[in-house]
Design goal:
seven-stranded mixed beta sheet, single chain, alpha/beta
């Protein structure tokens, strides 16, 4: 190996691995990194130093004095003298006595010649034996049909493909190698993804938490498909490294805000698996509303969401998803906080215009509206509905209305809101099995349900009168488990592994119809 001239070149794999390091800089910040086969440039090792590695040891064959001389100049040129050191390393006789600690190993295009595979794999084995918590990231260019899986397995090592990069005339693969006996059994994960914040949970086979992490928003429509997938993969990688998970997860479930289109969901999963194969063996993506059901009921059920917007979802016993509503305030959102507020405003305007009758005086309603928007005349509210429209701010009027629900007009508006939410359940019940209609489990989510006593009669009347098939009982619950657990549970079912249900949602009322 010392007589070869590969060290004189910067190969395409180095650029690809360098880009991966930059994209996943959080994996390298504060870590002790060792690079195999640095050559004269040490591109990947220097990149690790630039993104914040605590120390970087650049290695190659001890006889490559010219390469080391150039490499030392590159270190100085990049201002990394306090971070990077050079050490000779003969793969035929590896010696790591001077190394105190290694967290990550990187290697670019070291699998270039089958003749070096055995000493190289032996060196990797020795490194991961000495530093069993370390993880190796490597990139290589496809040149011949070769396979090292058997050699790795003999040494209790395993490899995972991160992604393949196809150029005009060649293909480059990025992968990881880790010690199998450092894997923590089967690990599952789930993500509860909102527009502004997200939660990630890791679970073992007993559904016991291995770690919970908070992150940024993961809205598919706001961030785009590829960016969302990349952000998720980078976040999961970082979290895995913090709790010592080396290999890919058994499954990753995602319940993301905006993930309403099954075709788009499938495309994100496909992209994630093609470009981040080291993260998980399987992935499943649904909307965050569906994961509410997965977090609450083991064998399917219904969720009714009434916050700023509204929707209803059902998960059948065999995992089939059904939807009613959830189309936004321009089309529906009936029974939501915004809908109730808007209905109150429309009622006030319509009564004053003489196009709608009221069950009583609208003066209490008028007072609540004027005080909430801090205006003197109802016409001034138009500014808040058009020029200064913020849906969530309009929806907050519902809270003030609830505080004055002793007024018969306002009480009637809440009855209508309950009726609209009941219509959702009646409509979705046509897809239910007879068994689910006998005892229908529903989890209710959203601030509007804080006013459940005001909604209840309208809700029951709509379910009773509008359901196409008789419904015997409905059991109403509050969510007690994070949606991230629901996402993990639904994804594990897709690979025929049922995570144990160690919790029960809070049953707050049973209604016999």
């Amino acid at each position: 190996m010392s007589e070869q001239n590969h060290w004189k070149h910067t190969w395409p794999s180095a650029r690809v691995l360098g880009q991966f390091i930059v994209s996943n800089r959080h994996l390298f910040e504060g870590k002790r990194v060792l690079e195999l086969g640095s050559g004269a440039t040490g591109v990947c090792g220097l990149t690790a130093g630039k993104v914040g590695a605590k120390s970087v040891t650049l290695t190659d064959h001890p006889a490559l004095e010219q390469a080391f001389s150039i490499l030392q100049k590159n270190i100085a040129q990049n201002g990394l003298q306090n971070v990077c050191t050079i050490q000779g390393l003969d793969w035929n006789e590896p010696n790591f006595e001077s190394l105190q600690k290694v967290d990550l190993i990187i290697a670019s295009d070291v699998f270039y010649d089958p003749e070096v595979f055995q000493p190289l794999i032996s060196t990797i084995d020795a490194l991961l034996t000495r530093y069993p918590e370390a993880l190796l990231y490597f990139a290589y260019q496809d040149r011949d049909d070769w396979f090292i899986g058997g050699d790795l397995l003999e040494r209790s090592l395993s490899a995972s493909l991160v992604r393949s990069i196809q150029a005009e005339s060649y293909t480059i693969q990025i992968g990881t190698i880790y010690r199998l006996d450092m894997a923590q059994g089967k690990v599952f994960a789930g993500i509860e993804g909102g527009a502004t914040s997200s939660k990630l949970v890791f679970l073992n086979e007993k559904a016991e938490s291995l770690g919970v992490f908070e992150g940024a928003g993961t809205n598919l429509y706001l961030n785009g498909l590829e960016q969302t997938a990349n952000d998720i993969a980078n976040w999961v990688r970082k979290a895995k490294s913090e709790i010592g998970i080396k290999g890919p997860l058994e499954s990753l479930g995602m319940g993301l805000s905006g993930a309403e289109d099954p075709r788009l969901n499938d495309r994100l999963v496909e992209y994630l698996m093609d470009n981040h194969g080291d993260v998980t063996k399987a992935a499943h993506l649904v909307s965050d509303s569906v994961t509410c059901i997965g977090a609450s009921f083991k064998n399917g059920g219904v969720v009714v969401i009434a916050g700023t917007g509204s929707s209803c979802r059902m998960l059948t016993e065999d995992g089939e998803e059904r939807q009613v509503g959830g189309w936004g305030h321009m089309i529906g959102d009936q029974g939501s906080g915004h809908w109730i507020a808007n209905r109150a405003l429309r009622h006030l305007f319509n009564v004053d215009d003489g196009v709608e009758k009221s069950v009583g005086s609208v003066e209490t309603l008028r007072t609540v509206v004027l005080e909430y928007f801090q205006i003197e005349d109802k016409v001034q509210v138009l500014d808040f509905l058009y020029a200064k429209f913020v849906k969530s701010e309009v929806a907050k009027l519902t809270t003030k209305l609830a505080e004055n629900a002793s007024d018969p007009v306002i009480a009637g508006i809440f009855y209508e809101g309950g009726w609209e939410l009941g219509k959702h359940v009646a409509a979705i019940s046509r897809h239910m099995s007879e068994a689910m209609r006998q005892d229908m489990p529903i989890v209710m989510v959203g601030n509007v349900f804080k006013s459940w006593p005001l909604l209840k009669k309208g809700f029951i009347d709509a379910v009773r009168q509008l359901s196409p098939h008789p419904i015997q009982s409905i059991h109403l619950h509050h969510l007690t488990e994070t949606n991230a657990f629901g996402a993990a549970a639904l994804a594990s079912k897709r690979i025929d592994h049922d995570l144990p249900f160690n919790h029960q949602p809070h049953l707050f009322e049973t209604i016999h119809l």
